[in-house]
Amino acid sequence: MKLTILLFATALFGADKVTYVEHDKIANALAKGGAVVKQSDLIVQGGHREKTGEVEVHDKETDVIYVVDGEATFVTGGNLVNGKETGPGQTRAPQMTGGESHHLVKGDVIVVPAGTSHWFKEVPKSISYYVVKVLR
User: Cα–chain-centroid distance for residue 55?
Assistant: First the structure.
């Protein structure tokens, strides 16, 4: 089922070509994080967290996040505190103020439009997820 969701997401956003990713690579990406598909208009990544992350803003990437397992408090739309550009169109910060909190659990999907701050603020145990990054 995980691979089906990955390929569906890839197809949904207009991938350059048909892409197949075998289950071992998917399992590894969900355990350790990392890209499993890279094309001109999208990137598909697996993600796993056991603690909070940094606040992120991607100027030209919309993130479509699908939670495979676990839970987290995910905050969107706040103001970065001590934000720094970490690459072209990429900004990170140790925290943010304000924003809207979302309690993410297995099966949830959240879409974060390009230019919107987002943050895994609290991760009680762990969370595993896919991210489809739709590139502008």
Answer: 12
- Structural domain of 56: 2-135
Report CA-CA distances (Å) from 122 to 46, 93, 116.
Answer: 19, 15, 18
Q: Report the number of distinct structural domains present in the chain.
A: 1
Over residues 33-77, the pLDDT tens digits come to 999 999 999 999 999 999 999 999 999 999 999 999 999 999 999
CATH code: domain of residue 19: 2.60.120.10
Residues 6+ apart with CB under 8 A from 98: 77, 78, 79
CA 63 to chain centroid, in Å, comes to 5
In this structure, what are the phi and psi dihedrals at residue 99, rounded to the nearest 5 degrees? 95, 175
Structure tokens at 30: 């969900």
* Statement: the pTM of the whole predicted model exceeds 0.70: yes
Strand-pair category, 61-76 with 118-122: antiparallel
68, 106 Cβ separation under 8 angstroms: yes
